[in-house]
């Protein structure tokens, strides 16, 4: 039975909304670099479905499936004065895809702390945290992306004809195994990790 209007209204959350202007990202593998995000697209989550065969139902009936598919994590970040944010992503992509010589992959594996991962491919990935901050600069939500690796990064775009100062940005896309999320209230994680 559906809820009554009064019951549904009593469950309505507080009507204050998140301004989409304060996001940042930390990459476990790159602790020396902090990413200030200009844009982030939290990936879609798609649950599977299975057709329920039923010869008496000509309209096709579906039941929940047995898997979850995640889209790509796409982040546009500000490039710092020394291009460290950009260079670290480019280097990571090169190391895991070995475009110049075979030693780049081995150097990545050898440079990792043995506590971070136990196998070769595990050492090419990193956990990433994306924070959504409130107007006071404190986190409201934390997404934890597990076993991420970059699949593309675009280069900075220069435009000398622009009359306004526009800071350089780059967009990076990641694949990952799954993500969890938690809400934060007054600086304390308040929500159950899902």
Structural overview:
This protein has 194 residues and is mainly β. The protein is built from three helices and ten strands. The strands form two sheets. Strands 1-2-5-8-7-6 form a six-stranded antiparallel β-barrel. The protein has a two-stranded antiparallel sheet with strand order 3-4. Helix 2 (84-97) packs across helix 3 (103-111). The longest helix is centred in the middle third of the chain and has 14 residues, at 84-97. The model has no long low-confidence stretch (mean pLDDT 84).
Topology:
Elements: H1 5-10, E1 23-27, E2 35-41, E3 45-52, E4 61-70, E5 73-78, H2 84-97, H3 103-111, E6 126-133, E7 139-153, E8 169-175, E9 178-185, E10 188-189
Antiparallel strand pairs: 1-2, 1-6, 2-5, 3-4, 5-8, 6-7, 7-8, 7-9, 9-10
Strand elements, count? 10
Q: What are the secondary-structure elements, in order, as H or E?
A: HEEEEEHHEEEEE
Structural class: mainly beta
Question: What's the alpha carbon Rg, rounded to whole Å?
Answer: 21 Å
State the helical fraction.
Answer: 10-25%
Count of alpha and pi helical runs: 3
Taking pLDDT < 50 over at least 5 consecutive residues as the criterion, the unreliable ranges are none
Characterize the biggest β-sheet: 6 strands, antiparallel, barrel
Arithmetic mean pLDDT: 84
